Amino acid sequence: MKNLIIVSFISVASLSMVACNNTNKSAATGTKDTTASTNAAPASAASTTAKGRVDPRTTASVMEMVGKYLQLKNALTKDNSSDAATAGKALSTDFTKLDQSVLTSTQKKSFTDIADDAKEMAEHIGMSGGKLPHQREHFDMLSKDMYDLVKLFGAAQPLFVDHCPMYNDKKGAIWLSETKEIKNPYMGSGMSTCGTVQEELK
Questions:
Q1: Is there a domain that residue 50 lies in?
Q2: Closest CA to 46 of 140, 153, 132
Q3: Is residue 103 a part of any domain in this protein?
Q4: Domain, as residue range, for 175
Q5: CB neighbour burial string for 166-183, b if at least 16 within 10 angstroms, e if fewer
Q6: Which of the residues 47, 75, 97, 127 could staple to 84 if both were Cys, CB 3.0 to 4.6 A apart?
Q7: How many Å apart are CA 119 and CA 124, to the nearest integer?
Q8: Residue 42 is assigned to a structural domain of this protein
């Protein structure tokens, strides 16, 4: 009986230790963390997604938004609330700059649904400097909107959908990253490598 209790304890302890271990075999180690440039050149020709043809002007606008989002994400990974607020404010403005006149009716409806919520989340992050937990709550919802945005229009760059299993009382949360290397914006410096790559977007 004593041996059974010891074995059970060791099993529980082992499971706890690996709960947030980055076990994704596809994640490259030693990848340099870079902040995405918001000055990337726009696509020269229209691209096509599941939602139809995407105008080059739309692609350029989406690239700007993704760049600001990645700046925000990188600030949160470093527990830098001030930089996260700055990026949040810039991102909220970018949502109003996209020229909807070049969108199809289906794209316009989908974009409006995404942008209304995403702009609000970005604004909250921008107004919450010094309040990392609050910024991360809104980042969780913003990340879902950004995922939908990239699925709608494409990102013109490889992006990775990462998942943290521990955030929000172990309900989990996703984020988008420009690198395979896990740097967790929800846990920051405390548990920076917590998470796995779930999907690659192109």
A1: no
A2: 153
A3: yes
A4: 55-201
A5: bbeeeeebbbbbbbbbbb
A6: 75
A7: 9
A8: no
